[in-house]
Amino acid sequence: KYHIDHRRRTSKPKLPPGPPRLPIIGNLHLLHRPLHRLLSQFSNKYGPLMFLQLGVHPAIVISSAEMAKKFIKNHDQDCCSRPSVSFLNKLSFGGADIAFAPYGEQWRELRKICSHEIFSLKKVSSFRTLREEEIEHCISSISDLAAENIPVNLTDIIISLGANMVTRIALGRSYHNNGNKMHEILQEMHSISRSFFVADFFPRFGWIDVVSGLDARVEKFIKKLDDIFEEVISEHLDPVRPKSEGAEDILDTMLGLLKDPTNNFTMNNVKGVLMDIFVGGTDTPSLILEWAMAELIRNPQIMKKAQDEVRSVVKSKGKVEETDIQHLHYFKMILKEILRLYPPGPLLIPNEALRGFKVDEYDIQPKTRIIINAWAIGREATYWERPEEFFPERFINNSIDTKGQDFQLIPFGSGRRMCPGMNMGMTLVEIALANLLYAFNWDLIQGMSKEDIDLEEFKGSTLKKMNPLILMASRYTLMQG
Ligand code: HEM
Question: pTM of this prediction?
Answer without folding.
Answer: 0.95
